[in-house]
Write a structure and sequence with these properties.
Elements (H helix, E strand, L loop, with lengths): L9 E4 L4 H7 L7 E2 L6 H13 L5 H19 L9 H9 L15 H14 L6 H11 L2 H13 L10 H23 L20 E6 L9 E5 L5 E3 L14 E6 L17 E6 L4 E7 L8 H7 L1 H9 L3 E2 L12
Parallel strand pairs: 3-8, 8-9
Antiparallel strand pairs: 1-6, 2-5, 3-4, 4-5, 6-7, 7-8
Protein name: Protein FdhE homolog
Family: Belongs to the FdhE family.
Pfam family, one: FdhE_central
Length: 332
């Protein structure tokens, strides 16, 4: 994907760390940002619809937007779920581990009922064709089959995973874990979730991030947060530090750079709003979306809409560490 002149459509940037400067100046920021029940999936579906305009993946972005709209409706009146006791929460905090790990926490069977309610809401908007056929097939499957698929998703096991059905089942998992986290926080307070080791995993459910986001606002301006792929919790993680191996050396950014003679698919975001933070130490990368470049960025939506950047960075020899449950790839 090089231009006729031999230059790459990727633009590499090595940067200083403004966040470290701010921290040394004594600025404080909240460590954890829990998802807002009324906004998390609503904002996502709005951003997806915005990005879908003139996008080569328009139909798929709208498909996921409709799915997010159903997620929003279910989360507003989600059934009560079984919560961990105070002793379990304290033990997890002392061990620097997430209290409700995605691959370890026993899911409340109510999640299956809420998934089926979500799929029923989604069915009214699902387009005819292969998408509707997949939806009907998942609805007709047994709870045991869905639970087995959910186990594979939670453990990031691709062998035996139904890739067509995965986003539908993942949508139910995301709503369930968001409800779980919010319910614990409503009962015990946000501070019940603390820092974990490693710091690259979600402090609530231990899942990998989809992307990171540099925020704006009085308390958070310039600070970077990782966005959980499962429960949508965000946690502070210093900039210019690999989110895979935690190295601070060899970090650089790659972004799509318009060049003469090279036509790049539109991402929908403003220029410079989505970059790939690459690590030369482990050859992994994670997308970073910047609110200072585009205040309306949303990590899951903008990650989906910038697949072209993934392809180019992968061609340059870096491996993706971000996990987006709405777009999974099978292994050879």
């Amino acid at each position: 994907m090089n231009s006729p002149s031999g230059t790459s459509p990727l633009r590499t940037t090595r940067v200083l760390d403004p966040e470290q400067i701010a921290m040394q100046a004594g600025r404080q920021m909240p460590f954890l940002r829990l998802p807002a029940r009324s906004l998390v999936f609503s904002d996502r579906q709005l951003r997806l619809r915005q990005l879908a305009a003139s996008h080569p993946m328009r139909e798929y972005l709208l498909f996921i937007a409709d799915l997010a709209q159903a997620q929003h409706r279910v989360l507003q009146d989600h059934a009560a779920v079984a919560l961990p006791g105070s002793e379990a929460l304290e033990a997890a905090a002392k061990a620097l581990k997430p209290p409700m790990p995605a691959f370890g926490w026993t899911r409340d069977p109510v999640w299956l009922n809420e998934l089926r309610r979500l799929l029923a809401l989604f069915h009214a908007r699902a387009p005819e064709g292969a998408a509707r056929d997949t939806l009907d097939r998942v609805v007709a499957e047994s709870d045991a089959w869905i639970d087995a698929q959910a186990d594979r998703l939670s453990r990031r096991v691709m062998f035996g995973l139904d890739l067509a059905a995965a986003p539908l089942i993942a949508a139910g998992l995301q709503v369930y874990w968001t409800q779980l986290v919010l319910s614990v926080a409503e009962r015990d307070g946000e501070n019940i979730f603390g820092r974990t080791d490693p710091g690259t995993e979600c402090p609530c459910c231990g899942s990998a991030p989809t992307a990171s986001i540099t925020r704006i606002g009085a308390d958070e301006a310039g600070f970077r947060y990782l966005h959980c792929s499962l429960c949508s919790t965000e946690w502070h993680y210093v900039r210019i530090k690999c989110t895979h191996c935690e190295s601070t050396k060899g970090i650089h950014f790659e972004s799509l750079s318009p060049q003469p003679g090279v036509e790049l698919p539109a991402t929908g975001a403003r220029e410079g709003a989505v970059k790939a933070e690459c690590c030369d130490s482990c050859n992994h990368y994670l997308k970073q979306v910047a609110m200072e470049k585009d205040p309306e960025v949303e990590p899951v939506a903008d990650d989906l809409a910038s697949v072209t950047l993934d392809l180019l960075v992968s061609e340059a020899g870096h491996q993706r560490s971000g996990h987006n449950l709405m777009l999974l790839f099978g292994e050879s």
